[in-house]
Amino acid sequence: MQPSIQTVELSGVLLCGGAWLCSLATTLMSTWLTLSTELLPGESYELGLWQSCVVQELGALECRPYDGLLGLPPDIKLARVLMCTALAAGLLALLLAIPGVHTVNSCHEEPRCKRVLKMAGGALALVAGVLGLIPVSYIAHLTVLRFFDDSLPEVVPRWEFGDALFCGWTAGVLHLVAGTLLLTSCLCLQRDTGNAPIPVPLGRARVGPARTRTEYV
User: Fold this and answer.
1) Three-state SS annotation for the chain
2) Is residue 22 part of a domain?
3) Most CB contacts within 10 A, which of 49, 57, 77, 95?
4) How far apart are CA 124 and CA 117, in angstroms?
5) C-alpha to C-alpha distances, 24 to 75, 164, 205, nearest whole angstrom
6) 209 assigned to some structural domain
7) 58 touches 73 (CB < 8 A)
8) Which of 194 and 36 is assigned the larger pLDDT?
9) How many CB atoms lie within 10 A of CB 161?
10) Cβ–Cβ contacts within 10 Å for residue 71, how many?
11) pTM over 0.90
12) Any idea which of 11-15, 90-94, 156-160, 206-210 has the lowest mean pLDDT?
C-alpha cells in the first residue's frame, strides 16, 4: 500500500474525531446567540439549545434550563434533533473508519472488509457534516432576518451570533473534509489494487533422469 494513501486515510480519521468533538461542544454550548442591551450594560444574555444564561459584568454566570419542550421555539427544537442525529452519525462514522485503516490490525485476511468499513465511515461523516450545518445555518439565517427587521423599533435589542455557531460551522466543514478523504482513500486503494500485477504461481520443476541420445548408423 502506498504511503500517500495511508496519510489520506489517517488524516480522514483524525479530522473525523476532531469534527465530532466540535459537534459535541456545539451541542452543549450555551452561546448559540448572545444579547447585550444598553439599559443593562453590566449584563449580557446567552441562548443555547438546552439552557439560557445571564453573564454578569464581574464574570458571574447564572444559567437556567428550559422549563419544558412544548414551550421551545421551533428552530431550537429542530436544532436539538439535528445536532443529536449528527452526533450519532459522526460517532458511528468514527467507529467504522478506525478498523478500516490499514495501520489497525483488523480484517487483514479480507481487504474488501476494510474498504467497506472505510467507505461506510466516509459516507456517514458526510451525512453528519450536512446534518450539523443545517441547524447552525438556519438559526444564523433567522438571526440575520430578525436583526434587520424594520418592523421592530431601534431600541429593541437584537440577538447576535454566538461562539457556538462558528464552532458548528467548523464541525460541519471538518466532517465533510473527513468524509471526502476517507472515500478518496478507498478509490485510490481500489485503483492501486486494480493496477497491481497478478502473481503467476510457478510449479516445481521435476528433476528426472537425464536422457541420452544415441545415434545409429
Assistant:
1) CCHHHHHHHHHHHHHHHHHHHHHHHHHHCCCCEEEECCCCCCEEEEECCCEEEEEECCCCEEEEECCCCCCCCHHHHHHHHHHHHHHHHHHHHHHHHHHHCCCCCCCCCCHHHHHHHHHHHHHHHHHHHHHHHHHHHHHHHHHHHHHCCCCCCCCCCCCEECHHHHHHHHHHHHHHHHHHHHHHHHHHHHHHHHHCCCCCCCCCCCCCCCCCCCCCC
2) yes
3) 49
4) 11
5) 19, 10, 64
6) no
7) no
8) 36
9) 17
10) 8
11) no
12) 206-210
Task: Give the model's confidence band at 1: pLDDT under 50 very low, under 70 low, under 90 confident, else very high.
Answer: low
118 closest CA partner among 1, 4, 3, 6: 6
Q: Which tens digits make up the pLDDT trace of 95-143?
A: 999 988 887 777 666 768 888 899 999 999 999 999 999 999 999 999 9
Q: Are 33 and 143 in contact (CB under 8 A)?
A: yes
| CA-based nearest residue to 17, from 102, 95, 84 | 95
212 part of a folded domain: no
Domain span at residue 148? Answer: 3-29+69-192
> Cβ distance 34 to 159 under 8 Å?
yes
CATH code at position 109: 1.20.140.150
Q: Report how many domains make up the chain.
A: 1
Asked, for residue 34, whether it belongs to a domain, the answer is no
pLDDT range class, residue 205, cuts 50, 70, 90: very low
Q: Which of the pair, 53 or 112, is modelled with greater confidence?
A: 53
